[in-house]
Amino acid sequence: MSIDNKTVRKVSKLAKIRINEQEEKKLIEELNNILGWVDELKKVDTEKIEPMLSVFNESMVMRRDEVFSETSDELVLKNAPESKSGFFVVPKVVE
Amino acid sequence: MTDFKNLDISTAKECLLKKEFSSLELTEFFIDRIKKSNLNCFITNTFENAIEMAKESDKKISRNREIRDLEGIPIGMKDLFCTKGVRTTAGSKILENFVPFYESTVSNNLISDGAVILGKTNMDEFAMGSANTTSFFGNVINPLKSSEENTKDLVPGGSSGGSASSVAANLCMAATGSDTGGSIRQPASFCGLVGLKPTYGRCSRFGMIAFASSLDQAGPITKTVKDAALMLQSMSSYDEKDSTSSRKPIPQYLDFLNFDIRGKKIGLPTEYKVEGLNSDIVKVWDDTINLFKKNGAEIVNISLPHTSFALPTYYIIAPAEASANLARYDGVKYGFRENSDDLEDMYELTRAKGFGDEVKRRLMIGTYVLSAGYYDAYYLKALKVRQLISDDFKSAFEKCDVILTPTTPNVAFPIGEKQNDPIEMYLNDVLTVPASLAGLPAISVTAGKNSNNLPIGMQVIGRPFDEISILAAGKLIEEYRSFL
What we know:
A: mainly alpha, Histone, subunit A, 3 helices
C-alpha cells in the first residue's frame, strides 16, 4: 500500500493540518517508509485473536451522580485566544 | 554553601529532620545550580514558589509537626503535568501560554507530601521523541560526556530528557517523568540514573497531557533505587478522576529492601538480542546475568515470540490515540491560535504552525491508520498483535518472576544524529516498547559503562503491580555495578 499526494492531502484535511508542497513531498516519503515498516505486522496470524483495547482489566465503577464543579466559566475561558461575554469566539461561520 | 550534590532523598530527609541543614538551603543550592546550568533542562522555573514551599517545610520540621514523606525535598516536574497557575506546555508551541487552573493528581500528590517544585522540565513535544530534540523550547543536553576527546554534546534521551538531565546534573534531587513507549527508562539509561515506569493504572493520568491514553503512565527518575521507591509511593494513588486508575491496594514500596532475590527466577528473552545491539551492552547484560546467578537467583530462558512486532504495533497504536487526543488543540479553547477569517483555515493554520514536525508526522500516521478503508488493515490489526504481545508476557511469567533485558540497544548519542530517518530514532525504544504495550512495570538501572565511560542501563520487567520485585532486582544491580 503506498501513499500518494492525493492521500497525503486527504489525510492532512482530516487531521486539520495545513501542509505546503515541500512538506507534502517529504511526508509522502516518510509516511511510505513508516507504513512499509509497519506492514511487517501482516506476517502475524491474528485470525482468532480479539483486539486488545486496554491493559486495564478492573471493572469500571459508575461515578457518583452528583454535580460538582471546581471550575468557573471565567477560569475555563482564561486560556482562550479570544472570548466574549462568557463564550469562546471563533471566525464567523455563514452557511 | 554546602555541597548537596550526590545526596539522595533518604539521606536528605534524615539530615533535614536532624536540622543539619534546612530545606531552604537545599532548595537555594539547586536554584543556584539551575541558574548556572546551560543544559536547557527547564522550560519554566518556579523559584519563588519553591522558596515558599521550602520555608513551609522548614516550619513544619522546626515545630516537629505534620512532617510529610517528602518534606522539603526539591524536585523537577515534567512539563507534561498540569500545574495550577504555572504554565504547562508539553514542550509545544501550541501550549506556549497555557496556564492550567487545576493540578494534576501526580503533582498534587507530590506537593501534598511536602516536595518542593523547582520548575517544569523540558521534554520532547507532547512526549513524542527519544532524544529530546523535538521540544519547541530547544534541545536538552546530557551532562555526561563521552571520554573520547572533542566529542559533541550528547542527547539525554527522551521524552523525559529535561527530567533525566536535571537529575544527572544535580539540578534537583529527583524528577517526574512519563512513559508511553520508554520515555522514562530510556533517558534514565542515557543519563546513568534510575527510571521506573509503574504498572498502567498505578499513577493517575488526571492532569497529565495525553499522548496515547492506553499507554501513558507517570513514574519517577531518580539517582537511586530507594529514591525511586520513595517517589513512586507518593505519586501512586487511586483516583476517581481517571477511569483507568487502579483500585488495587498500594504496597509499602520500601519493603523491597527486605525482598530476597535468592531462589527467584530471572527470565532472559532470547528475542531481545536484537540486531544492532551494541556489544558493550551485551557484555554488561551477561555480567548482570552472572550477578543474579551469584546471588542465588535462577536464570531461565524464556521466549517472547512477538517481540519484533512490538515497535510497528506501537507506531500504529500510539499515533492513532495521539491523533484523537490532540484533536483538542484547535485554537479555540486554549493555546496558540493562527488568526484567519475562515474557521477551517484557522484550525488548519493553527495546527500547522502550533505543532512541530514529529508531532505532525505522527498525527498524519494516526489519522491515516484510523481512516476509512485502513482502519482494519492497520489499527485493528495492531490491537490484535498487542494482545499477542501481552499474552507472550503472561506465558513468560509462568516460568519466571522478573525479566532482565538491556534498556536500550545503544548508549547516548550525539545531538543531531538519527535525525534524518524517523524509523532510526524509533528504534531507540525497541526494548522498552513491549512492556509498555503490555502495561507492565519496568525499571531501568545503570549496570555498567561502555569503553567511553557512558552508562549502560539494564531493564527489569515485572508482573502487573509487582513493583517490589523490580525494585529489589534493581537494587541488586545498583549495589554491585562497580564490581561488574
